[in-house]
Write a structure and sequence with these properties.
There is one protein chain. The protein has about 240 residues and is α/β, with parallel strands linked by helices. Helices cover about 35% and strands about 15% of the residues. A seven-stranded parallel sheet has the order 1-10-9-6-2-3-5, with helices on both faces. It has a three-stranded antiparallel sheet with strand order 4-8-7. The mean pLDDT is about 95.
Length: about 240
């Protein structure tokens, strides 16, 4: 395990520093390969990062942006991560980027049928995503968050579908999961897909999350799935820590 920690006095400083680092890496990817792929997390925490990153003068037309996970709700739903990205990141210069959404526009319900039935529907979505993402993989930058329960992306401890999401034998980039307590089913990048990214950044803030992070540093296990990313052997993980 190799972690590179970036400590800042405020969350605003974290957002600014991480945005600068991401922009530099995307620019390098465009120079080296002619294109770049950025995967971002949802929730409220990344909003300052999105606002800061959206104004960078990159060749955004050569950047593809997608998610690390998504709630299986309609695209216009307030809990839809893609909705958040469109509102806060795909604006200004960054509006020229291509965005790969995860939920079909035709999906219009938040109902949760029995898991086998729901999983079959989501698997169809995942295969469509696979077709669009596979030619771009590995991602140049993956930006992760972390919950107080130690989940990252939608890798939740004890979630239905978690074994498939973690298995080294899983050939797919995206798989469905049903978290044990969260209100919506999810699609998530698998652990093998995350570990193949060229660069992983983990953004955390607050004393409570810092405590969870310190526990996850100690050992890898499914109790805190973020630990499985932190202990990945392939490359260092950059951890951006705010107040």
């Amino acid at each position: 395990m190799t972690l590179v920690e970036h400590h800042h006095a405020t969350d605003a400083a974290v957002a600014d520093g991480l945005a600068h680092d991401i922009a530099r890496r995307l620019a390098d990817a465009i120079t080296q390969r002619g294109q770049a792929l950025l995967c971002v997390s949802g929730g409220k925490s990344p909003i300052p990062l999105f606002n800061a990153l959206s104004g960078y003068p990159l060749d955004w037309a050569k950047v593809t942006i997608t998610l690390v996970d998504e709630r299986c709700v309609p695209v216009e739903h307030g809990d839809n991560n893609g909705h958040l990205v469109r509102e806060h990141l795909l604006r200004g210069p960054a509006a020229a980027a291509q965005f790969i959404d995860w939920v079909p526009p035709s999906h219009a319900t938040t109902d949760r049928p029995a898991w086998p039935q729901a999983a079959a529907t989501y698997e169809t979505w995942a295969r469509d995503l696979e077709t669009r993402l596979r030619p771009l993989w590995p991602a140049d930058v993956v930006v992760l968050g972390m919950g107080l329960d130690g989940h990252t992306a939608s890798l939740f401890s004890q979630a239905q579908g978690l074994d498939d999401a973690l298995s080294s034998h899983t050939p797919t980039l995206v798989t469905p999961v049903r978290p044990p307590h969260a209100p919506h089913d999810r699609l998530t990048l698998t652990l093998p897909a995350l570990r193949k990214a060229r660069h992983i950044a983990l953004q955390i803030s607050g004393a409570a999350k810092h405590t969870v992070y310190q526990l996850a540093r100690q050992s890898a296990g499914t109790q805190r799935p973020v630990s499985l990313v932190l202990h990945a052997p392939q490359q260092p993980v950059s951890v951006w820590i705010g107040a």
